[in-house]
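Here's what a typical entry looks like (Methionine gamma-lyase family protein):
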Amino acid sequence: MKETYLSMGISEKTYEFCEKIEQDLKERFCEIDKVAEQNQMKVLGAMQKNHVSEACFAATTGYGYNDMGRETLEQVYADTFHTEAALVRPQITCGTHALALALSANLRPGDELLSPVGKPYDTLEEVIGIRQSVGSLREYNISYRQVDLLSDGSFDWEGIRAAINEKTKVATIQRSKGYQTRPTLSVERIGELISFIKSIKPDVICMVDNCYGEFIEEIEPSDVGADMTVGSLIKNPGGGLAPIGGYICGTAACIEQCAYRLSAPGLGQEVGASLGVLPSFYQGFFLAPTVAAGALKGAVFAANVFEKLGYDVIPNGTEPRYDIIQAVTLKKPEALIAFCQGIQAAAPVDSYVTPEPWDMPGYDSQVIMAAGAFIQGSSIELSADGPLKEPYAVYFQGGLTWYHAKYGIMMALEKLVQAGIVTL
Ligand SMILES: *Cc1c(COP(=O)(O)O)cnc(C)c1O
């Protein structure tokens, strides 16, 4: 094995340092595999129950009436998430679109949206109208209220109670920390929050942004009272195979609203040709539990590698995980650049290019990104990025297999060693 890694550009010292860390993670990895096994059975059971057959893989065109594959897939998602209904479509272009759809479909002028978990993901700021933008909910006279988490990461129960009023119609709850430093929420904590909100006002629709969280635990937010659970198919549930798409799983009433909003009033869920992408949706969903487990092992491995080298890592090497994102505070711009170059060099696609920092629109500092993905922008594939500003934190996630995630992290470390930033 060592010879193989040496031939792949890893030095003996890096190999041995990483090997030792992997040995110590055996038990942790075993727990991750158990969760994947449970989730594999959940998905498989849903596919069997709904009689997935070869006929489901046929492409439809035009209006896509009576698309059996599409209808069956939506039922498979609904059964996996234990919801009444689901909308799973290539016409939902990304996670932001799925979230914007779920919100705009279920809010009406005069209603208020509440975020009880602080600032939402960047792209949602424009959807909501926190940042001025054309077509935001705010333009439709939908107001927004936010209650931040307390400094220890706990919910501000009194603040939330005070924020709920006669206009409050939807609560948006983001599971993953995204690119913030707050803790990611466990499904259990999400359940406590939903119960609290509903104890104050039972008809508040609770929507969970489930991006990066699917299949990391044995239960999903839909198991603890979420009315809508929403995510992207180029993250966990697409299993790396879905080339596009988003999903919303939830109550029949909420999903009906979403369907009418996605297509048109009167048409709803009945239209939407699948154009031949369904085989990848089915197969990707089937693989998703093990793909998510591989990415999760990569995140845990990286946390332990860089923690041992003295870097701040969020989450740390031992704490429980509720999403696949790992942050490492690299402290120096050269270190951030070297790390990303290592991830890139380890990729199956575009491994020969060298990522450089650039002035990305909408950011107040330069940003460096590494991704060598089969599907553009797919972040269930191994990818890393970070802004070139204090504290030079890199955020990374993904890896379609654990072995690739491991190699990517070893290569990132190798580049830090070569640059003289780390000595093993
Ligand atoms: C990725 C992500 C989104 C947005 O998804 P896109 O597919 O990039 O539009 C929203 N929320 C969270 C927490 C995410 O991680």
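The chain is about 40% helix and 15% strand.

More examples are in the samples folder.
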